[in-house]
Structure formats: structure tokens, C-alpha cells
Amino acid sequence: MKDNFFWPGLILLVVALLGLMSTVAAAAYRHYEWLATTVLISVLGVVAGALWIVVERRRVTRIEEQWDASHPESRPVGALGEAKS
Predict the structure, then answer these.
(1) Whole-prediction pTM value?
(2) What pLDDT shows up at residue 80?
């Protein structure tokens, strides 16, 4: 199944990485007034991105389990020919 709903979470993690780079640059150039803002962007980006990916992974796992339950004949076969459980 092709699933593109992971992309927003990955984009949020990239935004968080850019926020972290901005934090380092603001500190290096002694623009301390920007530190709180850039740290907030980084933290919110990491939390939102990780949460998005976790929720999306659970959704995909649930859909796969539903599909497996409705198609028992398509389960992988073990080395000796019995169905894996």
C-alpha cells in the first residue's frame, strides 16, 4: 500500500532541524532575543513531527491488521509450509 501521510511528520522534523540550526546561529551571533523563539520552534516541531509519525504508524498498522484479518489466505508461509501466526 502506498501511503504518503508520513510526509507532514517528516516535514515538521525538518522544520525542527532548521529551528535548531537557527538557535545555534542566533547564539553564535549573540542575538539572544531570538533564542526563546527558535528553541520554541524546534521543540514544537520535534513534538508535533514525532507525534504525527507515531499516530500515522499506528493507523497504518491497524489498516494492515484489518486487511490481514479479512484475507487469511494471503498470510506468509513458513519454511515447512505452515502459516505463520
Answers:
(1) 0.78
(2) 54
